[in-house]
Amino acid sequence: MEEKSISVIKDIFEWIVCIVIAVVIAILFRYYIGTPTIVQMPSMYPTLQSGQRLLLNRVSRTMHKMPEKYDIITFEAPTTTTLSKEEINQSVIARYEDEPTSMFSKFTFNVLEIGKTSYIKRVIGLPDEHIVIKEGKVYVDDNLLDEPYLQPGVVTDAQKGQCIDLVVPKDSVFVMGDNRTQSTDSRCFGCIPLEKIESKVWIRIWPLNLFGKVDK
Prior knowledge:
- By secondary structure, the protein is α+β, with helices and mostly antiparallel strands.
- Helices cover 25% and strands 26% of the residues.
- It is built from five helices and twelve strands.
- A hairpin with a 2-residue loop joins strand 6 (137-140) and strand 7 (143-144).
């Protein structure tokens, strides 16, 4: 009877160890390699629509690699989403306040992403590029930006119709949603630092008729 009890305890322990290992591997894969997500907002319409399921590539974050122009990325939402026009034009980087400080809170927030909000936007400007938004159009280094992913007739306005004129700071990007009139983005909160970029949108896995790699 004693041997049987020991055997049962041993089996339970082995199962617990296997479950713990599986959970750890899943967490590491999700943080460093890739993870699924669901589009919840209309800011990237028509490229991405609410309810679509995506697979995100997080290798670039693991490698600390700067995204390319036109990449669709996810990043931690800034805590301040409305800066003044003067602050934006001073090439201000988005503000992240009240960041977790303890090891446990950092783990739950950054790794498990509990209580964390992320945005999906398109990279429009890279470090040292000169971004100007005026008269409903976007210029990069004095050249009109070619944006075939936008719906016909889309106008890109700055806050309250004012002109945006800035140089993207080092190790950061200027991002906007494709649905310009319904997107809170770098026009409102400034440029996103590389350290806050979480992933690159990689594959659309739902709906099935649109399954495949999400092009720029």
